[in-house]
Specification:
The complex is a heterodimer of chains A (324) and B (283).
Chain A (H helix, E strand, L loop, with lengths): L13 H5 L5 H4 L26 H31 L3 H9 L1 H34 L5 H9 L6 H12 L6 H6 L8 H11 L3 H13 L2 H8 L4 H30 L2 H6 L10 H10 L3 H35 L4
Helix pairs in contact in A: 3-15, 4-15, 5-9, 5-10, 5-12, 7-9, 10-12, 11-12, 12-15, 14-15
Chain B lengths: L5 H5 L8 H28 L3 H8 L2 H34 L5 H7 L2 H4 L2 H12 L6 H4 L10 H26 L2 H9 L4 H30 L2 H7 L9 H10 L3 H32 L4
The chains are: A mainly alpha (324), B mainly alpha (283).
Chain lengths: 324, 283
């Protein structure tokens, strides 16, 4: 299942195309959305045949912005407003109380384990899928996407079915005095599952678009496989790799459903930041809940900014390569 | 695959080193993390007799949860196909102040942890929320109703439609629209007969992706839905409830139904994307 939220390797040309539109077309238009006031053939207000009349443009932009405001902007603003409504002191108190700090520590730990694992996997999968031709390659690519289509709750359930007290490996694991389900290892496993495809999903299309010529040149010049990877491939894909890692990290830190199933919901022990938000909310501690949620909101903002930056970098680099 | 150089054409797989290592590790890790655990669900479900399986998957509560999950997911995806398509059009074709900011904002539901989305939507659309207080006098109840589930699932699915349709609109050949204009079509006719068929596969892909994401969604829904069995209880929540009651058979049975639906959706999306590539002339 592919949705490319990635910085695209192909430079978008819509920006350049749009510049043929004479600026007067918008600047000189009357303010009222009246079609009668602007006859389409009028020489004074020249408009390209593929351009929509100004009133259509204004109407569509307004409807789109209203929709986005009601669905995205207002809820986002509400998080910040609710978090800081009681003043910065209450916010600080909520995010630094011991249970919140324990949740933050656990979330960082979970991300620190699952993100490197899936990054390693992403690089290996992208190298295998984009650098070689073999049977079953498309099947492999589809299977890599599989966790995207699985409900997070089912992802958590997998850990219970494997390691729960009545699970397949559960009795064996318990006999060795290890707790996986309803403990930190289970949270890590569930997170690894849900963040599994992110890095591979970013790298595969990008490396496919880049082709193998530079690596082949390095091979001819006598580079070893490791040298090709670290000196040619990884520097070439660094921005797209970075974005994949950031997305993977955002999901790892923000995962709720899967973690909710396998966590024992023990405050200070098996509570991640999203679970802490839920507990506070269910206790009607709304202000504290939104204060902790604002940390996750900040994570989302950082992710969005990182996306923009990596997109610029990829575009700038693809332009310097000259039409690659 | 852009161009095959002489050397790669000679080599069977490709000349670069590391095929065994990278493919081996990929398959091993994929098996360990994804395939073995998922096949376990199917294995676990196969322990049930047919009668048991049918009883568990078609209990009134289970049926009601499919209805709300699939119904609300479809409604959300439909809203997103219309409005997300509009947002994609506006972002791809028009220039207006704040366009780049809006473009970045579209990914927010993807980047924002679902629990945060859930409490934020709840705060805004509740009876005394910023938007809810204007809907209340109109008799529209969002929080703790089916409408709330649809709202959350619309929120969660939006980027999938926009990010699928937008690149197709940006790459679409403007000359075809010019030709339509030269041949005497007005903009409405061009939109309906030229642009719409071009974006149709992408729009359907976006619908399927948004639907697939929404069907399995949990975090953003549980806060706003009120989780009333038979009314606003979504299927993932029912799985959660069954697990909490240590009813693993019940949980597995419903999970198998959902996995089957996800698998069908995955295939559908693959076919749709192949169709999109054919239309774009990339194959």
């Amino acid at each position: 299942m592919t949705v490319s939220l990635a910085p695209t390797a192909v430079a978008r040309s819509a920006g350049e195309r749009q510049e043929d539109v004479p600026p007067e077309a918008t600047a000189a238009s009357p303010t009222g959305p009246s079609p009668a006031a602007s006859p389409p053939g009028s020489a004074a207000r020249f408009r390209l045949a593929t351009e929509d009349p100004p009133w259509v443009r204004r109407l569509l932009v307004s409807v789109a912005l209203l929709f986005l405001a009601a669905f995205l902007l207002v809820p986002a603003a509400a998080v910040v407003w609710e978090a800081f409504r009681g003043g910065i002191h209450l916010w600080w108190k909520a995010v630094t109380e011991p249970d919140a700090l324990a949740a933050i520590r656990l979330t960082l730990l979970v991300a620190a384990i699952s993100v490197p694992l899936n990054t390693l996997f992403g690089v290996a999968a992208a190298w295998s899928i984009t650098r070689f031709r073999f049977r079953g390659k498309n099947l492999l690519l589809s299977l890599v996407d599989l966790p995207f289509g699985v409900s997070p709750v089912i992802a958590g359930m997998l850990v219970i079915l494997l390691f729960g007290s009545r699970g397949v490996l559960g009795p064996w694991v318990l006999a060795h005095d290890v707790r996986i389900a309803f403990a930190v290892p289970g949270i890590v496993l569930a997170t690894v599952f849900v963040t599994f495809p992110f890095v591979a999903r970013e790298l595969v299309p990008f490396m496919q678009a880049q082709g193998t010529e530079e690596e082949e040149a390095a091979l001819v010049l006598g580079a070893s496989g490791w040298q090709i990877l670290t000196r040619v491939t990884l520097p070439n894909v660094r921005w797209s790799l970075l974005y994949g890692v950031i997305l993977c990290n955002a999901r790892a830190m923000g995962e709720f459903g899967a973690v909710s199933v396998v966590s024992g919901h023990v405050r200070g022990l098996t509570n991640t930041v999203p679970l802490h938000v839920e507990i506070l909310y269910d206790e009607y501690a709304f202000r504290a809940s939104f204060a902790v949620a604002s940390l996750l909101f900040l994570l989302a903002v950082v992710t969005l900014v990182a996306k923009q930056v990596t997109e610029w970098k990829v575009r700038a680099e693809s332009e310097t390569w000259g039409g690659r | 695959m852009r161009s095959l150089t002489a050397s790669t054409r000679r080599a069977h797989r490709g000349v670069l080193p590391g095929f065994g290592l990278s493919t081996g590790f990929t398959v091993f890790y994929l098996g360990l993390v994804v395939l073995i655990p998922l096949s376990l669900v199917v294995l676990k479900a196969s322990e049930l007799t047919w009668a048991e399986a049918i009883a568990l998957t078609t209990s009134p509560r289970a049926l009601a949860s499919y209805r709300i999950s699939f119904g609300a997911a479809a409604a959300g995806a439909a809203v997103n196909t219309v409005f997300g398509g509009l947002v994609a059009w506006v972002l791809a074709r028009y220039r207006f102040p704040g366009r780049r900011l809006v473009d970045a904002l579209v990914d927010l539901p993807f980047a924002l942890p679902t629990a945060v989305s859930g409490i934020a939507l709840c705060a805004v659309y509740s009876r005394n929320g910023w938007i809810g207080r204007w809907l209340e006098p109109l008799g529209v109840k969002v929080v703790y109703s089916e409408l709330g589930v649809v709202l959350a699932l619309t929120f969660i699915g939006l980027p999938f439609v926009v990010r699928t349709v937008q690149p197709v609109l940006e790459d679409a050949d403007r000359e075809v629209e010019e030709a339509a204009a030269v041949l005497g079509a007005d903009r409405a006719q061009t939109a309906l007969r030229v642009i719409l068929p071009t974006v149709l596969p992408a729009a359907l892909t976006g619908f399927a992706l948004a639907f697939a994401r929404a069907v399995g969604e949990y975090g953003s829904v549980v806060f706003i839905s009120g989780n009333m069995p038979l009314r606003t209880e979504i299927a993932p929540l029912l799985i959660m409830t069954r697990l909490e009651q240590f009813d693993y058979a019940g949980a597995t049975a419903i999970a198998t139904v959902m996995l089957a639906v996800s698998f069908v959706l995955l295939l559908a999306v693959n076919r749709l994307q192949a169709w999109t590539r054919v239309l774009a002339g990339q194959v």
